[in-house]
Write a structure and sequence with these properties.
This protein is of the alpha+beta class. Helix content is 57%, strand content 8%. The protein contains ten helices and five strands; from the N terminus they run H-H-H-H-H-H-H-H-E-H-E-E-H-E-E. Strands 1-2-3-5-4 form a five-stranded mixed beta sheet, covered by helices on one side. The longest helix is centred in the middle third of the chain and has 75 residues. The N and C termini lie close together (11 Å).
Amino acid sequence: MDGEQCGRGGDRPRWRRHGPSWWRGADGDVRGARWPWPSTLFLTFFVLGGSNYAAHQQVGERAGLDLFARALLVAGCGLLLWRHRQPVLVAFGTAAAAMLYLGAGYPYGPVFLTVALACFSAVVAGHRRAAWSALGMLWAGHVLVAHWLYRWLPPSGDSAAPWGQEGVIAAWVVAIVAVSELARTRREQWAGERAERARAAQRRADAERLRIARELHDVLAHSISVINVQAGVGLALLDTDPDQARTALTTIKAASKEALGEVRQVLDTLRTPGDAPRAPAPGLDRLPELVSQAAGAGLTVEVAGAAPTLPPGADLAAFRIVQEALTNVVRHSGSRHARVRLDHDADALRLRIDDDGPATGADAGGSGNGLAGMRERAAALGGTIEAGPRPEGGFRVLAVLPLKVKAKEDDR
């Protein structure tokens, strides 16, 4: 697909280029550009053949082609080999070669093609003034030769050129400039589109990386908190109450198994992007299971209210917010009692998680990462999170999630 990243793993991303190889922007790799041998050779043969034909048609009017004339034609065409590397030099060089050719009285013909191609390449490369100056120099030189210097230049007995001919030449100059400017504009559009695709891909990668970080944090923080509490219980009761210690170990085993399963599911999305997940994402239908796990960690949770039918993204976000809030109660609150209340109307779901405190450390209510993750989840759905101490003591997390999540357009 256009604009997709071609590299994998640790390789540097490579973005597919669009358009012909000579559409190079200012940031293009000029040093690695190929020499345009085929087009230059073709144009050289065409110019030599066309000029030879023109000389036969203008016998008696212009000077015949000699070795110097052919050298000028070959030199003008040969300069085109550098049109990608030195566009300004090539534009002025071809214009000078054409001016010498015309000043020497040689026949009119396809000699102007070299100047046209050189100025076209200069404009596309961003050297507009140089290209216009080269064309202006050639046209001014032709006016001087055709209307003033012709008396002292070959061929002998030549007369002034009609002024109408200058209008034709000026029209060709305008046409060359117009086509070159159109090509330059299109090149810049392609470069802008390519840069926008790269930025969009980077935004998608950043969003996916942030999503995975939130998932891993929520899964591991909750499960490890349960494991830590139960491990402490097991160690304390190992000698005095082996049955209770066995229960704690059983809870540790179940929590670690669940954490491994969820971590494996997150990692599977990295290994095989685009594949359907092997297990459905958790939602508020697993709230009783979450309450049971909290009870295993010594936290009593009261649940009030019922959850409505939610979109999958909102359902996962609501579950993770409750999970992180309860994890923070286990880790940072001295209270062993928490309350979860679910309210909803036609527009939004409101989740409120309260505990009675007091805080057992500096990170009352949770560390910055957990609260930041909750806020990011809610903001991604167009919702809000409020978290802070309650006036009557303890801590409160209040989340408002819209029931109708507006689908975001993909970055293109």
